[in-house]
Amino acid sequence: MKRFKLNGILAVALVSVIVGFSFVACGNGGGGLRAVHHTVTFMNDGEIWDSQQVPAGQQVDWDALYDPTYEDHDDAYNFVAWSSDDEALDRFHPNTPINAAETLYANWFYGDVWAVTFNFNTGENATGVNAVVPHNVPDGGYVWFPANSNPTRTGYLFAGWYDDQEAGTEITATTPINADTVVWARWDAARILSFELFGLGVIAAVTVPDGAYVYDHLPYPAPSHADANFYNWFANHVPNQASYHERNTFTGMIEEATQTVDENMTIYARWDVTVTFDFAGGSYESDYYEEVVIVRNNAVAMARVPAPVNEGYHLYGWRNAAGAPVDPLTFMFMAHTTLYAVWEGQEHSATFNFMNLGGPYGPLNNVAHGTLLYSLLPAAPYSDYADFAGWFTNHIPGPPINFTGQVTSTSPYVTADVTVFVRWDVDVTFDLAGGEYNDSEYYVVRTIIRNNSVLLANVPDPTKYGYTFSHWAISPYYEYEDRVNPTSYAFAAHTTLVAQWNEEYDGGENGYENGDD
């Protein structure tokens, strides 16, 4: 007999394996193949202790097997387990199906052996060769936990094995056993953590302990999809609100050691999409970008989408790659999208303001971008009250009234809607009524813009021998109440001003004549 001492366990030597097949006579005298059985031989201290014919795929009938004895040896030896090798390195699981001839060996320990049993605490044992089973453990040895042997319980997560139902010490595969021990299953309330990916993939829900941090149970790696970029996980999702710019709102971003799973919970994947604007030859103002990143299933979340510019063209709208029209302020983008600017030949309108004299003419619509404005002008207007002085693109209402941007045969060109104004000039004629001006810089006739006063710092008074200048009056009225101050009066038509005189008193009998006060 060979003996091996390993961790206090004594093993016995290997013997031969017997495999049995047999034919039996059938009732009609013929022969038939009986169901296959395999022989399991139990060796104890170098001798066959027992054997069984086990149908293929079935288990050993352990109830029919007598516990072995270790005769002629010190009573201090105690039986531990059956193993499938002669050095007691591999315990044989009692639920193992027999699919070939097998030899098992009785293992003995010199010293105390302790009984280990299991209480699943309303849970369920694993099945087959994964199940934990009552067994003996040599003093100081470890509990035998087969692979994948954790029990299960509906609505709970297995939290480990303990030596007490509610308190006690955790029992692991490296905890020394020094007494008969009942090993209790411990449970944590379970919560279901689900993942919403909004159609861009599927991630199975997971069961997590009650109160666990969500962050610790996030799927790895993070989800990905060709149509959108994964941004992060969020605890809250509001799918629709009144405004297009307030849809798919996500709050409560999942962060480390922050949110806990206190009830069944769904977390939401926020996906972002990139909307790329292809200007098709146009350009944007410098403070806007060609790409806008927005939350998927949203419209472009901008106060406005600025229209690009393209000289000589008008932006008709935006289209996607399929040619469908898209309004980026209302379209709900579900994937990365490129929008292409659609241009049409730009047209403008030209309006003509005759300043209440002459006309009407126009307006002219559908004026092509870049048209020479001069080519659109009507014939020069005529009025008995004022003289036509040209077309202008700017009117300054004053006072004083003025015009700028004169239209000539070479400029300007129409690049936007435009209004063209007629400038009218009027002549103010000073009838000196026998008087004269002493300063040659002044003229008898002043030409001014209609509805303006005479644009002089002042209009000097004329002189007349033997008379004193009184005032100016509008011809043909020479009454006192028709006096006019030419530096403040707005002349709306050609006007003649007649000087009014007071005859100087010479101390004789002569009195005042014209303009007599």
Question: Could you walk me through the main structural features you see in this protein, from its secondary elements to its overall organization?
Answer:
The protein is mainly β. It has three domains: 4-111, Immunoglobulin-like (Sandwich); 210-345, no CATH class; 346-517, no CATH class. 0% of the residues lie in helices and 40% in strands. The strands form five sheets. Strands 9, 10, 11, 12, 13, 14, 16, 17, 19, 20, 21, 22 and 23 form a 13-stranded mixed beta sheet that branches. Strands 24, 25, 26, 27, 28, 29, 30, 31 and 32 form a nine-stranded mixed beta sheet that branches. Strand 30 and strand 31 (483-484) form a beta hairpin. Residues 1-30 and 511-517 have low confidence and may be disordered.
Short description:
This protein has 517 residues and is an all-beta fold. 0% of the residues lie in helices and 40% in strands.
Secondary structure: helix percent: under 10%
Largest sheet: 13 strands, mixed
Large-scale geometry: rod-shaped
Q: Low-confidence stretches at least 5 residues in length (pLDDT < 50)? A: 1-30, 511-517
Helical run tally: 0
Question: Mean pLDDT score, rounded?
Answer: 85
**How far apart are the termini?**
165 Å
What is the number of independent domains?
A: 3
Helical/strand content category: mainly beta
The total of beta strands comes to 32
The radius of gyration over CA amounts to 56 Å
Beta-strand portion reads 35-45%
